Each structure stands twice: as structure tokens, then as C-alpha cells.
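An instance noted here:
***
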Amino acid sequence: MLAEILKKSFERYFNAPIEVWKEFADLCESIHFAKDEIIKHQHKAEKYFYFIIKGSAGIFLWKENNFVCLDFAFDNNFCGDYMSLLTQKPTELEVVALEKSEMVRISRNDFYMLSQKSVGQVIMQKSAESSFVEKQQQQIELLTKTAEERYRILQTKFPNIHQRIAQKHIASYLGITPQSLSRIRNPAG
């Protein structure tokens, strides 16, 4: 079942045979996180690559006196401190479960073992490319769109985000205060 979920989730990037995903799934272990549980602490090296079966996670960076949300991941998506996973070094990023979550994880060593196979290389390349494109798009939007426009884009990408993620995290991701987000959400109020 996990292999089919992985295959379906990844098909938009690359259509790998189900056997590839079965091999990936065989190396995964199931794990659960409570809401607000830290998955990976800041200043630590990432040991795992996560796939969210159900739930959500956020990637945060400490700035001045609080954490700033850099990204979200939801059901049927990979998440983690990918920079740390690639460099094998600690980073300032913290990964947190934003709601009760069911995930599977694969160790960094097993992840790299799979990458030594030709299909694994393609999957890693496609993952890195899609991640790069999404982050570039996010940066472009941050520099060229108003907070309200960025909020509408976020709503389109994640229609039920307000039922799942705290307003302070959404505001942080958008680069605005929770009060500004409240005004955008309720312009007449």
C-alpha cells in the first residue's frame, strides 16, 4: 500500500515502476508525531527523509525572538531538513509536526543507497528540481506580490490550510503579522 501511495504522489514528477517504490517502502519505518512535536531540532543534523501519510509539518528558522515558518508540507509529500540531509551537517532549521501526523521515514544511509541505482538517481534529481522550482517561485512571489496576493496563492495551493495550521504559522510563512493576516482574511471586519 505504501508503495502505491508513493508512486501516485510522485507521478507528476517522474513515473517510476512500482518495484522502485516497493524497494523504497521496504526501507521505511512508520512513525507518529503529536501536534507541535519537534521532528528535527535546530543545530542538529538530519538523519531521516520523511514522507507524510497524514498530517503536516513546517520548517522553521529562529530569527530575532521567534521562529519564522519557511515552508509547509502536507499529506502525500516528502518533508525534512533536506539541506542537512544533503550536506550531512547540522543546520539552523527546525522541523515540527503542525498537527497530529502519521509519517514514514527512511534513514539517510538507506536513502543514499537507493540513489546509487539509476532510477533512484532520477527520483532524487526530480525531487531536487521540483523543490528548487517551488522555492524559487516562493521567493519571486515574496518579492513581487502583495501579502494579500501571496495569501490567495497559498489558499489555492492548500484550500483547507486554516483548519489545519495555526494562523501564526501562516502569517509567518507569508512574512506578515497574525493581525495583518486577520485583516486580509476578514476585510470587512
User: Anything to note?
Assistant: The chain is about 50% helix and 25% strand. The mean pLDDT is 89. The first strand starts at residue 29 and ends at 33.
